[in-house]
UniProtKB/TrEMBL annotation:
<dbReference type="Pfam" id="PF07811">
    <property type="entry name" value="TadE"/>
</dbReference>
<feature type="transmembrane region" description="Helical">
    <location>
        <begin position="12"/>
        <end position="32"/>
    </location>
</feature>
<keyword id="KW-1133">Transmembrane helix</keyword>
<keyword id="KW-0812">Transmembrane</keyword>
<dbReference type="InterPro" id="IPR012495">
    <property type="entry name" value="TadE-like_dom"/>
</dbReference>
<keyword id="KW-0472">Membrane</keyword>
<feature type="domain" description="TadE-like">
    <location>
        <begin position="6"/>
        <end position="46"/>
    </location>
</feature>
<protein>
    <recommendedName>
        <fullName>TadE-like domain-containing protein</fullName>
    </recommendedName>
</protein>
Length: 103
């Protein structure tokens, strides 16, 4: 009788290892998804900001940061807090996107 119960215990241990590794893989996929979304949204904000700079109606840095945060929050899966800092010089726009867990 004891030999039959050992298969159940082995299956429980094997299933828990399988599910743990499965959830770690899913969490890693969500992390890299959010990282790519953050980079893509920052690129999109940089392109829109640079195009609006050339037009007669000037785009402020605050408007670009706000549009970035709205677009990024809609698409993020794992991280809830996003932050964009824009440094502007004569010929260059530098965008830095940061993400985090808390509000």
């Amino acid at each position: 009788m004891r030999m039959k119960a050992s298969a159940t215990i082995e299956a429980a241990v094997a299933c828990s290892v399988f599910f743990l590794s499965f959830f770690l893989v899913i969490r890693g996929v969500f992390y890299y998804h959010d990282k790519n979304i953050l980079m893509g949204t920052a690129y999109e904000a940089a392109v829109v900001h640079s195009q609006k700079k050339r037009s007669p109606e000037a785009c402020t840095i605050a408007e670009a940061e706000q549009s970035f945060e709205i677009a990024a929050r809609k698409r993020m899966l794992l991280f809830s807090a996003v932050n964009l800092t824009i440094e502007e010089t004569d010929q260059r726009l530098l965008y830095k996107g940061l993400h985090g867990k808390g509000e």
